[in-house]
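Hi team,

Filling in the usual template for the complex we talked about on Friday. All components are listed, including any nucleic acid strands or ligand strings, so the model treats them as one assembly.

SUBMITTER: L.P.
PURPOSE: interface mapping
COMPONENTS: two
RESIDUES: 1121
SEQUENCES:
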Amino acid sequence: MSTTPADTAVEIGRSIGVSVPRREDRRLLQGQGEFADDVWMHRQGYAHFVRSPHAHARIVSVDTRRALALDGVYAALTGEEVKELCESPFFQIAPEPAAKIAEYPLAVDKVRYHGDAVAVVLAETRELARDAAGLVDVEYELLPVVVDGVAAAEADAPLLHEQVGTNVAWHGVFDWGDVDWALENADHVVEIDHLHFHRFSSTPLECNAAVVHWDPGTDTVQVKSNNQMPMFASMVIGPTLGVASNRLLFASQDIGGAFGNKIGSYPQIAALALLSRKAGRPAKWTEYRTEHMLSCGHGNERTFLDTRVAVMKDGTILGFKTRAFDDAGAYLHYEPLGAVIWSQVSCGCYRLKHLHVDYTETLTNKCPTIPNRGYSRLQHLWLIERIIDIVAHELGFDPVELRKRNYVQPDDYPYETPNGCVYDSGDLPRSLDIALELIDHDKWRARQRELGRGSGKRIGIGIGSTLDSGTNNFGQARIINPELPFSGNGEAAYVKLDLYGEVNVNLGTTPQGQSHETTAAQVVGDVLGMGPEQVHVTAGFNQQQNTYVAFSGTYASQFAVTGLGAAKGAAEKLRAEIIEVAAFALEADAEDIELADGMCSVRGDQERAIPFIGVANLIYANNAALPTELRERISLNCRHVYVPPFEVPDPDKKRGNLTLTYASQIHACVVEIDEDTGHVEILEYAAVDDCGKRINPRIVEGQVHGATALGIGAALYESFEYDGDGQLQQASFYDYHAITALDAPDIKTADIESPSPFTPNGAKGMGEGGGAPLHAICSAIQDALGDQDAIVSDSHNPWERVWWLVHSGERGEPRGVRVSAQAAASAEGES
Amino acid sequence: MLLESVAYARPDTVAEALQLLAENEDAAPLAGGQSLINVLKHRVASLELLVDISRLEELRGIAAAPDGGLEIGACVTYDELDHSPEVRSAQPMLADVAGHIEDQQIRDAGTIGGNCCLSDPTNNLPPLLVALGATMVIASSGGPREVAASDFFHGYFATAVGEGELLTSVRVPPLAAGASAGYSTVAVGADSKAIARAAALVRANGTIEEARVVLACVSPIPARHAGMEEALRGRAAEPAAVAAAAERIGADLEPLGDAHGSAEYRRAMARVVARRAVCQAIGNGGPQHG
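RESULT (copied from the run log):
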């Protein structure tokens, strides 16, 4: 396994691009982090949720008397009571009719998925709360269940939310270019009946947790949690609880992995707030693993029907048409934003001009979906990579050459996609060449031919080309619902020079392993001419202490742009102030002041110098020595909000620049399939990353490794499946096999740097990885299958599914794919 | 999930343990706790009393007879099986299988007795002990009794150990001249649930003289497959003959399907692992872990 070593020798002011050691490791590795479950409040009680064992049922009665009778049980809340206590249901992002969904912190009248919360109990100990919750008697009347995201859209499907009148949460047609023209004029049309992207999640090591205290003295609500997007949580639950945002005080410190999943803990936090108010005590909740798997949120499941791809004889792919059904589960948490977010990467890595996606998002009796690493884009990128490989497989193109022919080319940047997104920079063909070299492509291609049939083994080579779009334009929400008052993006930072000349950085982000303390120190240190070790970074979100904007948090691959852009801007403001004070003190021109190693000196005369402590002293404690104008204007406390250059997208045409940066990940792998068992062994694996200017290469590589491991896990092992009664089949790690080190191959990594012309440091957001391993492994399995075998039509390929694929040809099963040659046929007819 | 409140006792002798088990209706012995505690946490079962036998020296020894026969205390851990010179010498497959159960932390705690007494059909050791012809020694107030491994497993979480009784040791007879064991698994991941397992004990001398083939995960208990055993007897000890014999495994198996594998897949995998286990035993095929 290749790993970039830490580099401790750093030239002052030039740490960007150097793998300085992580600042946060000492604290985190020595058990000195502060995670949500470490938070303790005086008089706190422990909360336990009562969750539905049924997927769909009317709540006939909830009786908490037996629970409350236990000594040490403080309080209990039911859905009915919660409804009375709330000002309103949670606000919905969706337009009508799904805007009518009335979701409360606990289920009211009905439960809609296996794991839906019907009551919550607060008790003196965690064990007692668990036992008391077991004594809450709930009577259910079972209702019919729908667990299929496509069937849910049918008129006779059981309705989840009666007042909505349909299970369709959102429907829209995305139509760019002229796909009908493309299909009519293509040499070949490849038809793919059914493709399915499965449900999984990133299963962070730390589950959700929160301590919530409704303080009766100040009438403020303290929320100390590991929610990763606290301002979104605040926006959703504030109106529901009837608490103004300046009294809803969120704080998120260290987080043990989140991957988007921890955006979704706001219903529980709202329930805990009400429970705390009722009990007159702080309410502490630490989610159990099974509870997490049942109800925290799963990644989006999506089915693509009747995909038709227009291909020319030379391999040029003109575009495609498909019907997408996204299964959002029982409630809309952050959804239906996923219904537009995929369109950030509408054409994937390719110059496809004609796209038509008929997109339906449905409600089913399953756990609500929540953003999960690669949110909504990886499903679409997987579709496009499947299209490429299936086209290659059906029409006899080399998958490498087909990709290179259709890739956006290095000269094309900035490249505008059919829906108005702008790919900033990159070199996809070179990235692919490097990846193929790392896996020794030519050797394995030869080995594959030698092996032939009859050996019991098959070799397959796979490629996953993918984009990590970062820094959202929240205006894309208006494509979902034109009424939404959201657009743009931003992040705030606060940099100050403290009393004795120390530099401190305050961020509004919620890092979960992305090393914000380290990289912010690098960026600020470089601006101020100091080593990163001299810069102190206060990481974590604290509404009372940090500066923030409504977008603050850590999600959607954006810190390197938004967070570091804000830190850089604030540091530059501070630098200007320091220079101005130093210029006064040294009786020099500001242009002649240089900063180095905590000193301000006059260029060409090192004897004329003042240290940062001297500058700080003049502002903080010696201001009578300064002219009035200077001392009233300069504070050495500088806030900056980085705002990316976005405009409001066009909701009618569903067009606009939806994201600022596009990192690319090109993965390649070699697999060996055991025909007897379907076992897939990864023989070679390579990941080539291009995220523009890397602030800290070792941190980038760590995220590449993480995204790769999660993607391989999802491709081969991890799946959330429901039976026909809506029972989750994988509700613990007994049944949900999260990938371990034993399952993961050695990962070879390489990188190229195509700096973004649009960002403060040339950096791009990265870390989500775009699901590249899912694409690459499906691609490799497809490559291993012969001409007569089925196509890989599911993103999840455990041994059994691969075994069925390998043997499907023998069974004469329909392959689910056809080629027609409309233009070619008519051309031949004419000649 | 959390354990329900349960009483705990740590007796100093096997006799005391037996007394505690006999006197308390809902009592169960606790050895390594790697399965039982999870069963209790999931509230699949409920107990009044846990009798911790994990530190009883009487249950922690491995005794080897000069002929290679082993008597293994019920509380010997997987890691101890793996690293015991006696086990490695007399029954290398037993050491090898124990050394590949889950992860090191589990191997440091989980015991041979617990692995058998929980009688989860996916457990690693039961099919191998049946193949090796082991004898299970059970203590009770009436004195010890012996049960063949092939009669020990009664069903999901049910064994020949009755109320108030305790499995104290497992006796593994020496390998006969020319005999060798094989073991093969198809599992979800490297250290996760088994979908199909087989253990084999084959005595061969160019020709297969006797074969035991035990299948697991495809029925509630590990079970010898008489049809395949019969088809192997007298045949050449070579892969083609083994593969032909494995074809005898078929409609007679009625495995359950679950989230990890359909019934049809399990049946097909039973043939594969049976073939591989026998091939490994006759020296054709590498180690098959999982």
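MY TAKE: Chain A touches chain B through 27 residues (CB under 8 Å). Residues 824-831 of chain A have pLDDT under 50 and may be disordered.

Thanks, L.
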